[in-house]
Design brief:
By secondary structure, the chain is of the alpha+beta class. It is built from 14 helices and 28 strands.
Length: 560
């Protein structure tokens, strides 16, 4: 039997357990915000709040990142998530460490069916995707949180009991130094797919009945492969099942092999079995070493509501979808970005509880859409009837010859930022705004994320307002979290007596088109999470103030 080489194990960081001040106290201490779970979504939320100057307590059972054994887990981070990381101050580290890609190929058997380039329609400073092992993302987030210094990170802290109160939540916590109790105005559950908090509260997840199974091989090759996403619909080297092939950081390749639902997970993960699959795929002489091998299984689930009283669910605690298209981890990061600014404004007394209701109203439909999209991909990749097999063969055959059929080859619709439905706080729905490169009137460069990184406020982008209009708008919104900016060129003969007195960005056709604003008087309101909340054709100070109050749910009664 061949002995397969394993690369040296990753040395993941660990952080010390510090006994909390509540130990030995008989009276629970009340905290405004407590987050349970230091995975990507929980860490993103803690970092988002800290960036906004908001204190939070973060609890996690472990004292490190990732999982023991340093598996890659989530690897594919989409543009919207990368834009969030830009605002949080860790994007440059991710870009330097990870693998940027936008090109992919799809195969059926030995034949390339089609290829795609996701860069084509992007105007963002961030690329469509960067591949990076999940533990690096978590690592960078922890270090950023500690540098910001506003989060009480408590390692080796396991929540054993949760009790909903009339005005908060009481938690029992077990640590190496003993147990204690604390209270929170609001609790955020980011503990993942097997959330003990969700289970204890008796919340139905509507889990699917079947389990999709995969075997992941993290591998280094002596001879590099192309830096592209390669997908096989029905790989001949994997008994006609799906295969994904991605490059990650440190020259490590992530190869996912779809497995039968009834497979023996211990057997498929043996080095000799995984090695035989690689040799079947890449040839008998391929030289490689394993970094990690392991089984992966999931069942879809989706909560009816992401808010239950004072408890909010984010990430896998709220929803689990199949991995096709990288919509799982990215959705959790975007849950955190949606909830973070709302918690911040409520904690700072600038918004009410109705704004927190909008988290569920926006992110639950987004998760439902992701579940529908990925479920269709799962059915295409794992047909469950002869008719579905016949349909897939026909689609793949057509796609090789006819461009119209290529959109039907469903190996995973890649993660995009979901639009939000029409709602009281979003009369026209919500639409993401990409991280456009911008210039101030004096030529200095900036980006939308840099504009949003300071504090917690909406951005009002107004085409060529007069000074009188700008002054009146500032007065009308003086008590509200809004940063007004002008767009345009005040240097020429434009009929105005001078500039608006507002910080001014250079006019840019891409900016105007992306924000859907026309000429003079056009106005776009962008929320702190970089979603467009309103567009006004001929803005007035009163209409701007009204749009802002609507976006912040200030005139909406909260759910009882």
């Amino acid at each position: 039997m061949e002995n397969f080489a394993f690369a040296p194990a990753y040395e993941l960081p660990s952080w010390p357990f510090t006994p909390p001040p509540e130990l030995g106290s008989t009276t629970p201490v009340r905290h405004p915000i407590v987050i349970v779970g230091a995975g990507p979504s929980g860490l993103t939320l803690a970092c988002d709040l800290a960036q906004r100057g908001v204190h939070a307590v973060l609890l996690d059972e472990d004292d490190t990142v990732g999982v023991r054994g340093a598996s890659s887990r989530g690897i594919c981070y989409a543009q919207k998530s990368l834009e969030i990381f830009e605002r949080l101050g860790i994007y440059e580290r991710i870009a330097a460490k990870g693998i940027t890609w936008s090109f992919g190929r799809t195969f059926s058997g030995e034949q390339e069916v089609y290829n795609f380039n996701l860069q084509a329609n992007s105007v963002s400073r961030q690329p469509p995707f960067i591949n990076l092992q999940q533990f690096y993302i978590e690592w960078f987030l922890v270090e950023r949180i500690l540098a910001l210094g506003l989060t009480d990170v408590r390692w080796k802290s396991r929540v054993t009991h949760v009790e909903q109160l009339a005005d908060g939540v009481r938690l029992s916590i077990e640590t190496p130094a003993g147990s204690y109790t604390l209270e929170a105005d609001r609790l955020i559950d980011a503990t993942g797919a097997n959330s003990p908090i969700r289970t204890q509260l008796g919340i139905d997840t509507h889990s699917s009945r079947s389990t999709d199974r995969w075997c992941i091989s993290d591998v280094r090759f002596k001879k590099p492969l192309p830096t592209e996403r390669w997908t096989w619909v029905d790989a001949p080297f994997n008994e006609g099942r799906g295969v994904w092939q991605h490059l990650m950081a440190d020259g490590v390749w992530r190869i996912d092999y779809q497995m039968p639902e009834d497979c023996d997970t211990a057997t498929i993960s043996k080095p000799e079995v995984a090695g035989a699959r690689l040799r079947e795929q890449l040839g008998p002489d391929v030289e490689f070493e394993f970094v990690w091998i392991g089984p992966y299984g999931y069942r879809d689930h989706l909560l009816d509501s992401f808010r239950h009283g004072r408890v909010f669910f984010i990430g896998d605690a709220a929803h689990v979808v199949s991995p096709f298209g990288a919509r799982g981890g990215n959705s959790g990061i975007q849950d955190a970005a949606n909830l973070g600014w709302k918690l911040a404004l409520v904690a700072q007394g600038q918004a009410g509880d109705a704004l927190l209701d909008s988290y569920d109203a926006e992110r639950q439909p987004a998760a439902r859409q992701n579940l529908q999209v990925t479920s269709r991909s799962a059915r295409f990749l794992a047909p469950r009837s002869p008719a579905e097999h016949t349909l897939r063969r026909a689609v793949v055959a057509l796609a090789a010859r006819h461009p119209f059929a290529r959109t039907l080859v469903n190996t995973g619709r890649m993660s995009v930022a979901n639009d939000y439905p029409v709602a009281p706080q979003l009369p026209d729905g919500g639409h993401t705004v990409q991280n456009l490169p911008l210039r101030w009137a004096d030529g200095r460069e900036t980006t939308l994320m840099q504009l949003l990184a300071d504090g917690t406020q909406c951005i009002g982008l107004w085409c060529m307002p007069t000074r009188a209009q700008a002054d009146a708008a500032r007065e009308a919104t003086a008590s509200l979290p809004l940063r007004l900016l002008a767009i345009g060129d005040y240097s020429g003969d434009n009929g105005d007596s001078g500039d608006s007195g507002l910080p001014t960005l250079q006019a840019d056709d891409r900016l105007a088109a992306h924000l859907c604003i026309g000429g003079t008087g056009g106005f776009a309101l962008v929320r702190p999470d970089a979603y467009r909340a309103a567009v006004l054709a001929n803005a007035t100070p009163q209409s701007i103030a009204s749009a802002l109050r609507t976006a912040l749910a200030l005139d909406i009664d909260p759910t009882p």
